[in-house]
Amino acid sequence: MNSRDLFFILGTHTILAARGSRSGNHHPPRGLAARYDKHRRIARWTLPIWLYVSVTGVVVYVMLYHL
Q: What is the pLDDT along the chain (67 residues), one digit of tens a residue?
């Protein structure tokens, strides 16, 4: 892995983590209020973002402290 790949992972992780936390704040209240149509619409985008951020978070940690 070269430095360009590492910075790409770090950059996408940072941007999507900021975006995912913003949309994640709107997600639970709509589910709890039983507005399932809006809940599903947001979850369709939020889930893949959160999965990517969680995996790349581990990758970023390994890159920072173990490479």
A: 778 888 999 999 999 998 877 777 777 777 788 888 877 888 888 889 999 999 999 999 998 898 7
**Residues in CB range of 12: below 8 A, 6 or more apart:** 52, 56
> HEC profile for the chain?
CCHHHHHHHHHHHHHHHHHHHHHHHHHHHHHHCCCHHHHHHHHHHHHHHHHHHHHHHHHHHHHHHHC
Residue 21 tokens read as: 């936390």
What is the rounded distance in angstroms from the CA atom of residue 1 to the CA atom of residue 67? 11
| C-alpha 19: how far from chain center | 7
